[in-house]
Each structure stands twice: as structure tokens, then as C-alpha cells.
TrEMBL record:
Domain GFO/IDH/MocA-like oxidoreductase, chain residue ranges per copy: 144-225
Protein name: 1,5-anhydro-D-fructose reductase
EC number: 1.1.1.292
Species of origin: Rubripirellula lacrimiformis
This protein's encoding gene: afr_1
Molecular-function GO terms, alphabetical: 1,5-anhydro-D-fructose reductase (1,5-anhydro-D-mannitol-forming) activity; nucleotide binding
Pfam families: GFO_IDH_MocA, GFO_IDH_MocA_C3
Keyword Transcription regulation: no
Domain of life: Bacteria
UniProt keyword terms in alphabetical order: Oxidoreductase
Ranges for domain Gfo/Idh/MocA-like oxidoreductase N-terminal: 1-121
Amino acid sequence: MRAGIVGVGFMGWIHYLAYQRSQNAEVVAFCSSNPAKRAGDWRSIQGNFGPPGEQIDVSGLSVYESMEGMLADESIDVIDICLPPAMHDQAIRACLDAGKRCLCEKPLALDAATAARVASDAGPQSLAVAHILPLIPEFKILVDAAEDGRYGKPITGRFKRTIGPPDWLPDFYDPAKVGGPLVDLHVHDAHLIRLLFGMPTAAHCVSRKKNGVPKFYETVFDFADDDKVVSCGGGVIDSPARGFTHGYEVSFEQATIQFEFAGYADGSTALIPVTIMHNDGRVERPEFDGGDPVEAFVHEIDAVARWINQGEVSPFLDPKIAADALAICEMQQPK
Ligand SMILES: NC(=O)C1=CN([C@@H]2O[C@H](COP(=O)(O)OP(=O)(O)OC[C@H]3O[C@@H](n4cnc5c(N)ncnc54)[C@H](OP(=O)(O)O)[C@@H]3O)[C@@H](O)[C@H]2O)C=CC1
Ligand SMILES: O=C1CO[C@H](CO)[C@@H](O)[C@@H]1O
């Protein structure tokens, strides 16, 4: 699969690294509005996981200033959209108009209605949405267990996702551009909750806000089946000391699974490895390789390659589920 990346920022860089490792896909083009990045200087890129941006070799790549050139490039099989959320809808529609399939970073849009519209207009044959959690082995185990029923049905879940201030993103709290953490960050867990438990009917959310936009929140969800107990919390803490953490405790009918990872500013990490507590008292700790965050993106790119090359549509990348995740975010917004 030959891909062209649109938007050379944190995710453009992480996707680029994943293409370098993939056996099934390669990046052949990118577009950037920034002349230094077009010349290969990606050292200004910042993010909250993975290695810092580097100088890259652009000699074998087609480099464009805007997306239009890439849309006309017949050697590109898939456009990989790594733009800020407010630009996703228009970029996807430009791909559809040009007859190009695309992979778009999460969140699919800033609001549920736009997400539902573009998901339905594009369909899973033209659009895949890059929801990474089900492709991270430590989270995939939940989705696989829910799917094959190895521990019975999922019945309770508590999810956590917190970052330090993302100061390199000036528009982070702008509801018209990125949407703040209740959209841009929480959508990861919203998507996972949708996959594991189905669609909640309501949400009870309390939050501390920045300029009216939720910054830190705790939410309890209602489901049609009131035996499910699901909550989620997180957002932005004021200290950069712990740049990123995520984790969960999910109970199935016959076992409870726990996991938590944190990365700190001094380069240290803390980990509760995936721990399966069986109802009969056995404790199991399956092995997962390494915890390198880029590796999950290789799995993601490979899933996209199977879609492009063999027509195999991954339910994890389904735009309809990505739109449902936005609806879950929206039900938590202050009225
Ligand atoms: N799956 C995951 O774990 C993560 C997903 N994301 C998602 O990836 C997407 C991109 O986020 P991220 O990479 O962090 O953002 P960045 O701001 O780091 O990168 C976005 C890039 O888009 C391009 N761009 C074009 N127009 C604009 C504009 N008006 N304002 C800002 N940027 C513009 C820029 O690239 P250029 O200079 O080349 O033009 C910019 O570097 C978002 O949807 C975000 O939610 C983000 C982090 C993690
Ligand atoms: O996982 C994530 C980490 O924080 C980011 C903010 O920089 C989010 O955009 C993101 O999806």
C-alpha cells in the first residue's frame, strides 16, 4: 500500500515512523504548509509519546505544499489525514470527490452530527478512522475477550486517560478547532466503551472547565441494561511532570482485567501490567512485547493495508463506530 500523509505534526510523524517499520505499506508522499518540513526538517514536532521529531530523508518522496497535488497523484493508494479535528470533514470530502480512499485520525469530527454525516456519506469502503486503542495489545485483549466471550460478557468498566498540558497545541481548548480533552482525548475511551458495552443511553459528567470547555472530568454512563456499570475519567492536569497516563479495570462475568501505564517528564515510566484476575482466584499476567507506542501504529497501518490490498474492512476502523464515539463525547458536554 502506498500512502501520502497530510499534516506533518505529532501524528504525521508517528504514522511516518510506523510506515518505516511496516512490511505491508510505505509512505510515498506528504504535504506540508511548512517549507522547513517540506525540506525534511521535522525536528520542531512535539507530542506526548514516542520519539521527538527528526530530520528525514525526502529524496525518495513526492512532496507537496497542499493536499490537492496528492489527490491527483495516481501512485498514491490512500491519503492519511493527520490534520487537526476541525479540518477532517473537509479533507475526507476532498478525498471522496477525488475518488481516493483515506485513513483519518480520530476524532472523526468535532461534533456527532458532522461525524455521522461524513461516516454515512463515505462508508467503510472509502474511509477508515484511526482509532488506535483496539490495536494496542494491552487494550485489544478487552475487545477480543468481549468478541469471543472467553470470560463471559463485559459487565463493569472504569477507564482513565490523563495528559499534562499540551502547550504545543495552541487551539487545544478551542471548541471550533480541537474541542478540548473531552473530545480530542476522551474519544479514545468513548470508542472503546462503545466497542465493549454498546451505546450508552445517557451520561452524568462533572467537570472543571477552562474557558467553558471541560478540562478534567469524571463520567458515569447509563445503558439500557442497568446491570452494566461503566465510568471514565481524565483530562488535563496542570503539571507537565506526568505527560501521559491511561488505564482501565474491566470486569467480565468470569474475570477482571486491570492495566495502567504512565510516562513522566524525566523519562521514567510506571506500569501495572495487564493482570487477569479470574473469579476462581487465579492471577494471570500475559506477556506483551515492549510497550513501544509506535508498534500499535504499525498494527494500524497494517490493518489499513489489508483493507486497501485485500478489501478486508476492520471493525476497529469503521467510521460508523467512530461517529458513535463522538455521540458519546457529546452526551457528556455541559448543557
Ligand atoms: N491516535 C492518537 O493517539 C493521537 C491522535 N491525534 C490526532 O491526530 C490529529 C492531529 O493531531 P496532532 O498531530 O497532535 O496535531 P499537530 O498540530 O501536531 O499536527 C497537525 C498538523 O496539521 C497541519 N495543519 C494544517 N493546517 C493547520 C491549521 N490550520 N492548524 C494547525 N495545523 C494545521 C500542520 O502540518 P504542516 O505544518 O505540515 O502543514 C500541523 O503540524 C488530531 O485529530 C488528533 O486528535 C493526536 C495525538 C495522538
Ligand atoms: O492520545 C492523545 C494524547 O494527547 C493528545 C493531545 O496531545 C490527544 O490528541 C491524543 O489523542
